[in-house]
């Protein structure tokens, strides 16, 4: 568990929970899921002192559930956002086609819970969550002046939560390039090794991974859309600072939504491209089979009259023509050669023995 006090350009990590909320600024409490479960009673008491409210039981169960999809809910005390982010490090969805027996590790995600009070942000995540450490280090550098030019320190818990969600979505955007390269390798295997492609299990796992990612992003889109609706339903205020903060929150939320839409669009294009590649693979296989059958049919048509001639003269009768002729054998061989060459020339003229241009 890590507790921070954020105020203007100050970012201070606290070693113990304060008895009262800060007079200025807000608190950010980042805790992993197991510790949250173990210290729930003391956290509820601390939240009561800081905010005047506690977490409801259904929301506690949502924060403890590692399988819950992204969703949004709110109360009169706080907003709750559960957002699934990629596990770190990002595992490749598709293994290299150079190793047909290699299994493709799945792309998995972990939920991060954001509980947004007026002066407190509570984040619940796994013990190895990259998002908390990234923002803790980044905000510390900004407060010390090392990275002040990047962006200002978030002025409210909601702003900090939106920035963290935006960072999680950016990880999905970075994954797009990796997916594109790896699916390109699979498609090359389908096209250029069409007769020997055997990584069907790998391809099915890759397409299944795409569908999982698509379902995850659709849940994320629904959660962010509900958060935007909740911002729009806030009571009207004449305070310009409050209005500016709400406008900034809407802009950030819409930016996150636009990023999610781009990810969804890219995933659907990849899935469609994979489907088209499979269809083209089978079309190529069918074309190749047709070419082989055409060649075999033409060869059969060429040798059929020759087999007839040899079968005719192979009958065990004395009265067959040319049987007792000294030149009968050569006449028969010549006739068979003329028939064979003539049929081959005829089929070649009909382009049945040559590849179409």
What layout of secondary structure does this protein have?
Layout: E1 2-7, E2 10-14, E3 26-32, H1 33-38, H2 40-51, H3 57-64, E4 71-74, E5 79-86, E6 109-116, E7 120-125, H4 130-144, H5 157-192, H6 200-232, H7 240-313, H8 328-349
Parallel strand pairs: 3-7
Antiparallel strand pairs: 1-2, 1-3, 4-5, 5-6, 6-7
Helix pairs in contact: 5-7, 6-7, 7-8
- The total count of helices amounts to 8
Distance between the termini: 70 Å
Give the biggest sheet.
7 strands, mixed
CATH architecture of the largest domain: 2-Layer Sandwich
Helix content: 55-70%
Evaluate the radius of gyration. 36 Å
Give your account of this protein's structure:
It is a single chain. The chain is an alpha+beta fold and 357 residues long. It has two domains: 2-284, CorA soluble domain-like (Beta Polymerase, domain 2, 2-Layer Sandwich), CATH 3.30.460.20; 315-357. It has helices spanning 33-38, 40-51, 57-64, 130-144, 157-192, 200-232, 240-313, 328-349; strands at 2-7, 10-14, 26-32, 71-74, 79-86, 109-116, 120-125. Strands 2-1-3-7-6-5-4 form a seven-stranded mixed sheet, with helices on both faces. The two termini are 70 Å apart.
